[in-house]
């Protein structure tokens, strides 16, 4: 009988501690709500924030001022200017790299070999310098898309200026 009383006493103590924990959690939960039954605002660390209605209205009005249509237009203009600047810088870089490439000793040597190998007539229209045309050495696969083929003689063809300009930056398959 004494053993049962001790076991019941221990069981009651555990039950009583559980009830106290439950009551503390319930009170803590109630403290998270204001008088209107809404959750009280808290910051990222869980600390309660005291916000009045006037603070909220002021913050909203400031936000609305900042997102005014003129500011948005200014933002769009700024984005557009930065995109234009990046595009212009990329074009300048391409022009510099093209002028450096075409002035290189390797390109001039390869250009000479292409004229020697393929002749001095346009591979498209068959005309040449005898017809008063300026001849170009053209990359079949564009150098901008296939930089690894830039100095391959098998990627070169002789074209008159007119045919080369009409071909532009396309490869033979796209152009024809």
Describe the model:
One of its GO terms (cellular component) is cytosol. It comes from Kluyvera georgiana ATCC 51603. Keywords: Hydrolase, Nuclease. Residues 110-165 form the HNH nuclease domain. It is a single chain. Helices cover 59% and strands 6% of the residues. The chain has 176 residues and is mostly helical. The mean pLDDT is 79.
- How many helices? The count is 6
* N→C terminal distance: 106 Å
Task: Give the low-pLDDT segments.
Answer: none
Radius of gyration: 40 Å
Q: What is the count of β-strands?
A: 2
Specify the biggest β-sheet: 2 strands, antiparallel
Supply the helix-strand structural class: mainly alpha
Helix content: 55-70%
Short note summarizing the structure:
This protein is mainly α.
Tags for this model:
176 residues, mainly alpha, two-stranded antiparallel sheet, 6 helices, elongated, zinc ion binding, nuclease
Compile the SSE list and pairings.
Layout: H1 2-31, H2 53-66, H3 69-102, H4 105-118, E1 135-139, E2 156-160, H5 161-167, H6 172-175
Antiparallel strand pairs: 1-2
